[in-house]
Amino acid sequence: MNPSIRSLIAWLTSITRPVHKPLFVSALLRIINLSLDIVLFGLAGGGVMALVTSSGSVGPLLGWLVLVSLLKAFAYYLEQFSGHYVAFKALELLRTYVFAKLWPKAPGIITHARSGDILASLTRDVDRIEVFYAHTFAPLVAAYVVSPLAVIIAGITCGADLVWGAALALALSLFVVPVIGTRDALAATRSTLERRRDLAHHVTDSVFGKAEVVGYGRQELRLAEMEEVGEQISATSARARRVVAVRRGANVVLLAATCLTIVLAGAGHSPVVVAALAAGALRLYEGPRGVEDAVGYLDHSFASARRLWEISHAPELVSDGPDTYTGRAPAVSFHNVSYAYRTEGGERAGFALDSVSIEAPAGAHTVIVGPSGSGKSTTIQLLARYDDPDEGTITLDGVPVNRFTLDSLRTSVAIVSQKNQLLASSIADNLRLARPEATDEELMEALALAGMTKDIGAMPEGLATHVGMGANRLSGGQAQRVCLARALLMDPAVLVLDEFTANLNSELEQEIRANIAAAFPSVTIIEVTHRLDSVRGADRIVMLDRGRVVAEGTPADIEAGSGSLSAFFHENV
Predict the structure, then answer these.
(1) In a 10 Å sphere around its CB, with 0-12 CB exposed, 13-18 middle and 19+ buried, how is residue 381 labelled?
(2) Burial letters 487-496, b for 16+ CB under 10 A, else e
(3) DSSP conformational letter for 466
């Protein structure tokens, strides 16, 4: 369902209801501030003309200017204070609502959304909506109240013949200019944001799939694809910028026309009055300029609001089963599993897995290999029920995984992904996500199994070391090993390793494998890898290509079937 703008506004205002009263206070203060702005310029213009014509004195003029300036400054301060309160409160409400809606749908919705890092994308979308509360509502209200009221008061007190031209120009500025190119600008902005999400997704895939990109010699292709998306962003954003430029130019012309008509109609009127009106008109268009900016902000706000609405109203992909999983080292089986990704409209976008059957024996080490896009990651995500297959079943010791509660299943099936998921906190805090009650000694034992003992010893703060945003204070290998240690703390029944050795040297990899084998001799291990040494040490190999199993068996079976495991591996992987 594609919500209308009215539906989006009703939805947003229902979330941000607590800020509505302070928002109206901010708008009132904006009205006072803008009114005093016009008065200040009018006083200055009329006062200077009065001094030039010797019909006024400096003392009273300075007194009025100081008084109005102080009142304006006070109103401006209160407007900024209330406006920032509204903005930050709206941010809190929107982020809390959206992430509360996102949480039950994770991790499936995160893996399906084409937005690079969906959390960062959502944060940017919320920030764009917050702009509506910080920079849109108050300027819009003030513009349509202050500017027309100022012209009406000027017409009543100074003569309608002086301001008829200003009234006409202002009407064009308030009611015609804002709608110039609105539909095209909104479509261009939405397209730009979609292309930016595509670019974020492309860059994220390239960074985390760098081993495959380099291994298959796709560097130039990936760069060319990124450049193409960048050109699309430039083209669509240019359309929106052209609309903004036309609106800005139109308002400048109308401002000049307003001042000119006042001066031309001023014959027979007091020069002081004409000067005051012309000077005040210079600030009269602060309101229309606020409308002009607000309309530009609205383009982004509505495009982002639509994105948040779609995510918030998306159905949950999976639901809890009735049973709690309590097994140990189960046999994992995929029986004729087929799965297709969906487009935003819900249509199938081609099979990621097509009638896949895999047997991972209990307590054995099963390796899944295959080229990029063969369905390896999809396979392990379905095992943890990020989503359910369209056809077929996945079982643990013969029991379908959808019979189990999600918490018990995902506690028992621990996945160490090639993409490191660490919070911007300490190493200890990240590890205790697996076991909040774990002692420091237990944390160190898990880190030792992951080959992190020397690394932790070299860190002055030890377990209290902050990993940084996106784990940027750790090396790629250190971040992967912290994630592995966290998975081992869960004491899983099934350990899933998705390219966990991508940033490790062979010696360290072998040490970690030996540690896991000694500490968890009966755990069922399923590994996705591109390393030949990992394949040779496996109990069973499964080769995927284009969503189908094309070869499986023990290393000896593969060796016998192909004549050379090394040749087979390099030819297909």
Answers:
(1) buried
(2) bbbbbbbbbb
(3) B
DSSP annotation of 405: -
Q: Token pair for residue 57? A: 């004195």
**Does position 99 have pLDDT exceeding 60, yes or no?**
yes
Please answer whether residues 125 and 229 qualify as being in contact, where contact means their C-beta atoms are separated by less than 8 angstroms.
no
Q: Which residue has the tokens 């513009």?
A: 143
- Give the tens place of pLDDT for each residue, 358-373: 999 999 999 998 877 7
H/E run at residue 102: helix 58-102
Confidence of residue 11 (pLDDT cuts 50, 70, 90): confident
| CB 376, CB 544: distance < 8 Å | yes
Instruction: Go through 423-447 and write b for each residue having 16 or more CB atoms within 10 A of its CB, e for each that does not.
Output: eeebbbbbbbebbeebeeeebbbbb
Report the run of H or E that residue 549 belongs to, with start and end.
strand 548-553
d(CA 227, CA 206): 13
What is the rounded distance in angstroms from the CA atom of residue 530 to the CA atom of residue 573? 7
Which helix (H) or strand (E) element contains residue 364?
A: none
What are the structure tokens assigned to 547, written together?
């969503």
What single-letter DSSP state applies at residue 354?
Answer: E
Q: Which amino acid is it at 29?
A: L
Percent helix, percent strand, percent coil in the chain, to nearest 5: 65, 10, 25
Amino acid at 386: Y
Q: Report how far residue 340's alpha carbon sits from residue 165's, in angstroms, rounded to the nearest whole number.
A: 64
383 in Cβ contact with 389 (< 8 Å): no
pLDDT score at 121 = 66
Cβ(53)–Cβ(45) under 8 Å? no
> Amino acid identity of 182?
T
CA neighbor of 483 nearest in space, from 446, 519, 510, 511: 446
CB 38 within 8 A of CB 3: no
Cβ contact 499:528 at 8 Å: yes
Laid out side by side, the sheet with 365-369 consists of 413-416, 494-498, 524-528, 365-369, 540-545, 548-553
- The DSSP element (H or E) to which 449 belongs, if any, is helix 440-449
* 116 DSSP assignment: S
Distance (Å, whole) CA 116 – CA 108: 14
Q: What is the DSSP letter of 323?
A: B
Nearest to 32 by CA among 146, 141, 187: 146
**489 Cβ contact list (under 8 Å, min separation 6):** 431, 434, 435, 438, 442, 443, 446
Mean pLDDT (the chain, rounded):
84
Residue 481 has which token pair?
Answer: 């090993």
Distance, in Å, from the CA atom of 338 to the CA atom of 390, rounded to the nearest integer, reads 6
- Please, are residues 129 and 308 in contact by the beta-carbon 8 Å criterion? yes
How does DSSP classify residue 19?
Answer: G
